[in-house]
Amino acid sequence: MVNALLQLDNISFGYGSQPLFADTSLTIEAGEMVGLLGPNGAGKTTLLKLATGALRPQRGRVLLDDRDLHSLPRREIARRIAVVPQESSTPFAFTVRELVSLGRTPYLSFLGTESAADRRAIREALEATGTASLAGRIFNELSGGEKQRVALAMAVAQQPDLLLLDEPTTHLDLKYQIGVLELAQRLNHERGITILASMHDLNLAARYFPRLVLFQRGIVADGPPVEVLQSRLLSRVYEVPVEVGILHGATHLSVLPPAASDHSQHDPTSAAERDASVRPVVHIIGGGGSAALLMRGLADARIPFSIGALNIGDSDHALALRLAAGVISEQPYAPIALETAAQVRAALKRSQAQILCPVPIGPGNLILLRLALEAAQTGLPTILLEPASATITESDAASDPVPILCQITARDYTGGEGAAIYNALLKSGAQCAREIPEAITLLSASLKASDQQPAREHNL
């Protein structure tokens, strides 16, 4: 990667004769905010210690700006990398201001006196973390959430390029968990501090970290939340069944025990993702919750999309209003009107690709499939998102449409017309994807093949 700030290059490490991980590579670019996930004992804290130079890999190298970390003076490392541990305490009665001033230690002169620049950095760190009002308080008398913010203030006073957080929300109540992560997010956005944080709470990780690394004695998955937070991966790594979805009214992924439910909060990235000035490059046909994960995945991948037609009140409709660059709406429980169909035809004409989600097919939305077929037959790249099924193998998806059509027939309530349209779509060159990452990969390849040109006008 270009702008690589931290690189763990084929590192291996273990304690005694017990290996913990081997030949592990991870690159963090400057300005990224990365969440490190994994169960207890997976090696997350060890990985952070290797990243600071506190531990030395048994094989491989740790690079900071392409320089071997262990060749750098500790003073320089302390200026570039700051660490916030799980818990902070001190045997002395330091005030908050005194503790935050310790973040300036790598910059102090031989005599240890503070300069004007040091005092300014301390003041700005207190203000940035909302701890200025605590400056005169004794650190050990603070609450857990206040201590964590002060620890962040000390790290900010270092003016680091890289901030490592080791389970920063441990032992904190919900208010302080959110407060600490929103503070970290603000430091990343406003000050450009690169952040790598080990996390236990998968839901908070999905909300605040654009990139996640699932770690279990090595990297299991690395990418945006929609790629990493997959039920099959999490169930295997954490050894417990989980479900992944998007709760009603939410925009972020949620990880739940099977059949559990919860409420959601505002996604801080949604405003940028629904920027009305962005022109969609792909149109989605979905509904009934079938497009929720796809929309989240496209938003994470920064691929602008339009969607519709969706009935107002549909679970996909509420999410689309927050994530999509364009939403075509229809009245609740109503079939697709001719005027609405004209809007869909126009959206397809402007798009560079279309994705059909596994929505139940009925007389009310059959016209959408007809429009999708028209677009495919005029050359619009088409992807059929079909959920993973034991009846569909790799060779099936590549050469034999029968198993896929059997799956589609099960949700076709039009007497077979819907399945017939899907068969025609397959014959016209539509590609099948069984999971969201696969659909996004196919879409990206299609966009790349067209050299990322502005949306083509299809003669519909």
A few lines on this structure:
With 460 residues, the chain is α/β, with parallel strands linked by helices. Helices cover 37% and strands 21% of the residues.
Entry keywords:
460 residues, alpha/beta, Rossmann fold, 2 domains, 6-stranded mixed beta sheet, 6-stranded parallel beta sheet, 18 strands, 21% strand
Overview of the structural elements:
The chain is elongated. The chain has helices spanning 44-52, 74-80, 96-101, 116-128, 144-157, 174-191, 202-208, 225-228, 231-238, 270-273, 292-300, 315-323, 338-350, 366-377, 394-399, 402-409, 417-427, 436-449; strands at 4-15, 18-29, 33-37, 59-64, 67-68, 81-84, 162-166, 194-199, 211-215, 219-223, 243-245, 254-256, 282-285, 305-311, 326-330, 353-356, 382-385, 431-433. Helix 14 links the parallel strand 16 and strand 17 (382-385). Helix 11 (292-300) runs parallel beside helix 12 and helix 11 crosses helix 18 (436-449). With 460 residues, it is α/β, with parallel strands linked by helices. The chain is built from 18 helices and 18 strands. 41% of the residues are buried. The two termini are 41 Å apart. The strands form 4 sheets. The protein has a 6-stranded mixed β-sheet, with helices on both faces. The longest helix is centred in the middle third of the chain and has 18 residues, at 174-191. The protein has 2 domains: 4-256, P-loop containing nucleotide triphosphate hydrolases (Rossmann fold, 3-Layer(aba) Sandwich); 275-449, NAD(P)-binding Rossmann-like Domain (Rossmann fold, 3-Layer(aba) Sandwich).
